[in-house]
Write a structure and sequence with these properties.
Elements: H1 13-18, E1 32-35, H2 43-53, E2 69-70, H3 74-85, H4 90-94, E3 103-106, H5 109-112, H6 117-120, H7 122-138, E4 154-169, E5 177-180, E6 204-212, E7 227-230, E8 241-243, E9 247-250, E10 257-261, E11 267-269, E12 277-289, E13 304-308, E14 311-315, E15 349-356, H8 361-371, E16 378-386, H9 391-398, E17 401-402, E18 405-406, H10 407-414, H11 420-423, E19 424-430, H12 437-446, E20 453-457, E21 461-463, H13 467-476, E22 499-502, E23 523-530, E24 536-542, H14 547-551, E25 563-565, E26 572-576, H15 579-582, H16 596-606, E27 610-613, E28 619-621, H17 627-634, H18 638-659, H19 672-679, E29 681-682, E30 687-688, E31 710-712, H20 730-741
Parallel strand pairs: 15-16, 15-20, 16-19, 22-27
Antiparallel strand pairs: 1-10, 2-3, 3-4, 4-12, 5-11, 6-10, 6-12, 7-9, 7-11, 8-9, 13-14, 17-18, 20-26, 21-28, 22-26, 23-24, 24-31, 25-27, 29-30
Length: 742
């Protein structure tokens, strides 16, 4: 027996993000989203038949008349009263062309609360239940604030207040509904405006769901009937939506659902021109709580020690360590004349960061801006995966101003030109909806808004000064010859480098960071071994001192001193944004950790991209495993464990097919067989060819062949025999490595 879904499958974390009604962080599109194919192609006709058989809609086959009547809202009644008092007369208002003309009826709560309702109205019951469950599970408790607000509000819904309305607009080209807001004459413009609910005020409409029951083949132009959504911003990339300077017209296609904030979105129903336009509207009621929770030690039970200059102090969390002090920064990267950068062409960088309950996220953002050569050209997008039902965690991880930690002010004090209002975007999702890094990285890429370059990183990183200028300079050199020859695919059809810079960065220890004596040599990704799941493990090998300068070329010369490689590091990669058009992250690889990077490596190879490691270390990575993720896995129910295991196995099957040249997402420039041959790996036999761990370099290129010169995704803490670690610490590190591999 097939189990019906209890939530709307088309609702994504980005829907939740957009409904926060924050136009700035949504890239101009805040307050609404469109979900097509919401319940299936046959569902609208079945629902119409159900409403006809129960007497709500006219049924021509039986000759019965439905219960629809002339639409009268509270606004209509109030306006009538005003007109009568002013002696203008009721008819003057009612005869105004196009004001109203639709017929509607509310399907009362009394009807929907009857025991017989699910059996008598199975389709309508499913629709209302899915809407309620989706709102309560995906949106209740969500922070409803802007990065500049001094307060944040938290949403609480009242299931007992849900209302359902059935409406029909005749296809006469006249009947419509003028511009309005579902909570009154006008909508609020800011999240924390005077319309916010406080104290013991009554519940009001928070979310509006409109589900269309129009005939198949509805023509947006010939049939009309669009929902006109007003906005002060233009939005790009919406299907079947026509932009104008002031609004968007959303066509009422069958099985389409439009969800918007009742208190933020002003909208209008345009006249239907040829056929009847039938829709069900469901309002979810609730209130916002303006009480700010007190910061607790939920995620940081003990204080952390941070360096400020030459002194150390104890603070409540890593975010308290944010400072404009530069004395503890790692050595700067060289800055060369940027030939691509002119007065009229200031190229920009988008940084994509998936964050899973990570206290290091804001320090990572701080490091990006503090060390950038041109911070005003850096745009950051974060996917927050947090406990949205915990105000304390929301405040600690997601809010930009929580009492004593004014992140916005601290970032603004670093350098002029970068601001949370203009340079920062985010998506917030509950961590229970997280399905692994691939989906989170995909969501982060959706926040890209046309910047020239993309840097994908993890949420626990530190950067060397001038990282942005250095990466652009090194990427521009990738089409030039190297000591190993000339790259095969020099530029794409847009004359942009068909290349990716990627590597496993050295480790840093939070909260102090790498420090002025940090490792600066580059690392190169090479094959390591196969795991029990049949997936290749890879490692980053540290180059020996002087290798870059002696055997390739001097930094800054015309020669390409990047080191060619074939493997991909998910936590640090830099490329021109045209790559997103042909090889974006696969959002369907759920539950995948090992396998994520080899999947991207073979996809990029077959799309003709050459991968390189920068000759110098650009950034640093905290390789210690996030304790929150470990705890969440251990607390998972058995059913969820089985579900994630099933998703992971399905994703592994996709990667195995890709490595055989048969999977989705592959290109046509080169084959998967060429990739495995060049890499020196037999994926069918899970075996490595001799010397493949040198990555086509001589063995003398690397610091040594021991653990001391390696960085792997499973050891996560490189030895400092070459990176500064005492020998006595090695056994503790190996225990950590073994724990993580298991």
């Amino acid at each position: 027996m097939t189990t019906m879904p209890t939530t709307i499958s088309g609702w994504t974390p980005k829907t939740t993000h957009l409904l926060r009604c924050n136009s700035a962080s949504a890239g101009g599109h805040g307050g609404y989203d469109i979900i097509d194919h919401a319940f299936g192609s046959t569902f609208p006709a079945q629902l119409v038949q159900e409403l006809q058989s129960n007497g709500w809609l006219d049924d021509p086959t039986r000759g019965t008349t439905g219960r629809l009547g002339r639409a009268r809202t509270k606004m209509d009644v109030d306006l009538d009263r005003i007109l009568q008092l002013s002696s203008l007369g009721d008819d003057d208002y009612r005869n105004e062309k196009g004001v109203r003309g639709d017929e509607s009826v509310f399907i009362s709560r009394e009807v929907r609360q009857q025991d017989s309702f699910p059996k008598q109205y199975p389709m309508l019951h499913r629709l209302v239940t899915c809407v309620e469950q989706t709102a309560f599970e995906r949106f209740a408790g969500i922070t409803n604030g802007k990065s500049s607000d001094s307060e944040s509000t938290y949403l609480e819904f009242n299931k007992g207040m849900t209302s359902v309305q059935l409406a029909k607009y005749p296809g006469n080209g006249m009947a419509g509904y003028p511009r309005h807001c579902d909570v009154g004459a006008t909508c609020r413009r800011e999240l924390n405006s005077s319309l916010s609910m406080k104290g013991k005020e009554s519940d009001r409409r928070i979310l509006t769901f409109v589900y269309y029951l129009t005939p198949d083949g509805w023509d947006a132009e010939l049939d009309g009937g669009a929902l006109r959504i007003y906005s002060s911003h233009l939005v790009h990339g919406r299907d079947n939506v026509q932009p104008t300077p002031d609004y968007w017209d959303v066509a009422p296609f069958s099985d389409r659902m439009v969800v918007f904030r009742s208190d933020c979105i002003e909208h209008q129903v345009m006249p239907s021109l040829r056929r009847e336009r039938i829709a069900l509207t469901i309002w979810i009621y609730g209130r916002e709580h303006n009480t700010i929770p007190t910061i607790t030690d939920l995620l940081s039970p003990t204080k952390v020690k941070c360096k400020t200059g030459t002194q150390s102090q104890l603070f409540e969390s890593p975010r308290h360590c944010l400072t404009s002090d530069t004395s503890n920064l790692p050595p700067p990267l060289p800055v060369f004349a940027l030939t691509h950068d002119t007065q009229d062409n200031h190229e920009t960088i988008f940084v994509a960061i998936p964050s899973y309950r990570d206290q290091e996220t804001w320090p990572t953002i701080h490091s990006l801006i503090q060390t950038a050569h041109h911070p005003e050209r850096v745009y950051i997008g974060v996917v927050w995966q947090i406990d949205t039902f915990s105000p304390e965690e929301v405040q600690l991880l997601n809010d930009t101003d929580n009492g004593s930690i004014n992140t916005q002010q601290i970032l603004a004090n670093l350098k002029s030109g970068w601001s949370l209002e203009t340079n920062f975007r985010s998506i917030t999702m509950d961590y229970r909806q997280s399905t692994g890094p691939c989906y989170a990285r995909h969501l982060a890429q959706t926040l890209h808004l046309g910047e020239d370059y993309v840097l994908q990183i993890d949420s626990h990183m530190r950067f060397r000064p001038n990282w942005d200028a250095y990466l652009i300079h090194q990427l521009q050199k990738c089409h030039m010859p190297t000591s190993l020859g000339t790259p095969r695919m020099t530029k794409d059809s847009n004359n942009k480098p068909r290349a990716v810079l990627t590597a496993y960065p050295p480790n840093y220890d939070a909260p102090d960071g790498p420090g002025p004596n940090a490792e600066t040599r580059g690392t190169v990704l090479v094959p390591w071994k196969f795991g029990v799941d049949g997936m290749l493990r890879q490692k980053g090998r540290l180059l020996r001192p002087g290798y870059t300068n002696n055997e390739l070329s001097n930094p800054g010369s015309d020669r390409n001193d990047n080191i060619p490689c074939l493997l991909f590091a998910a936590g640090f990669n830099f490329f021109h944004s045209t790559l997103l058009d042909c090889c974006p992250y696969d959002h369907k690889l759920h539950g995948l950790f090992f396998g994520e990077e080899i999947s991207m490596a073979v996809r990029l190879y077959t799309h003709g991209y050459d991968l390189f490691s920068p000759p110098l270390t650009v950034c640093y990575h905290q390789w210690k495993r996030n304790p929150m993720r470990t705890r969440d896995i251990s607390d998972m129910t058995e059913d969820n464990r089985k579900r994630l295991a099933s998703q992971k196995e399905a994703s592994l099957d996709v990667v195995r097919m890709q490595l055989r040249g048969l999977g989705r997402g592959l290109g046509q420039h080169r084959s998967a067989r060429q990739f495995s041959d060049e890499l020196g790996v037999d994926f069918d036999k899970c075996s490595l060819l001799p010397d493949c761990d040198n990555g086509k370099l001589s063995a003398e290129a690397f610091a040594d062949n021991s653990f001391a010169g390696l960085i792997t995704v499973s050891d996560h803490v490189p030895s400092r025999n070459t990176l500064g670690m005492e020998s006595s610490e090695m056994s503790a590190i190996w225990n950590l490595v073994n724990d993580f591999i298991q």
